[in-house]
Amino acid sequence: MGHTPMPEPMRRAVNQLTSEAVERCQEVLSYAGSDVARDWKRMTLYRATDAADTTDCVAMLIAAYCRYTGMAPETLQSYLQLGRQQSRAAGPQGEDRAHLAGLLGQAAPARRQ
């Protein structure tokens, strides 16, 4: 497959969506950095997941274009790094709890079998 530039309408959409994701990330930083933000837990989670969802939209838009232009499904799956995909629906996993424990200077929780 040869080099083809990103179509201009798609470039505009990717730029807009990426800007929105960055804006949500900046809001996360704002809430995380404020000592007076009483709703920091709720608002940082809302904005962080908004940013993740918007970034996912960017990836899926590009993925749709790749399939449209004939990229092999196996190649696309590799580029999407599907093996690293983790669902938020599963909630925090052991590595997330261990990372938090380390940040708080505590021992890592016992691994669940």
Please give the count of helices.
4
Shape: flat
**Secondary structural class:** mainly alpha
Mean pLDDT: 90
Question: Would you kindly provide a written description of the structure presented here, covering whatever features stand out?
Answer:
The protein is mostly helical and 113 residues long. Helix content is 64%, strand content 0%. The protein has helices at residues 8-33, 40-68, 73-79, 94-103. Helix 1 (8-33) packs antiparallel against helix 2. It is flat, with a radius of gyration of 18 Å. The N and C termini lie far apart (45 Å). The mean pLDDT is 90.
Annotate the secondary structure layout.
Blueprint: H1 8-33, H2 40-68, H3 73-79, H4 94-103
What is the structure about, briefly put?
The protein is mostly helical and 113 residues long. The chain is 64% helix and 0% strand. Helix 1 (8-33) packs antiparallel against helix 2 (40-68).
Considering the chains and any ligands shown, give keywords for the structure.
113 residues, mainly alpha, 4 helices, 0% strand
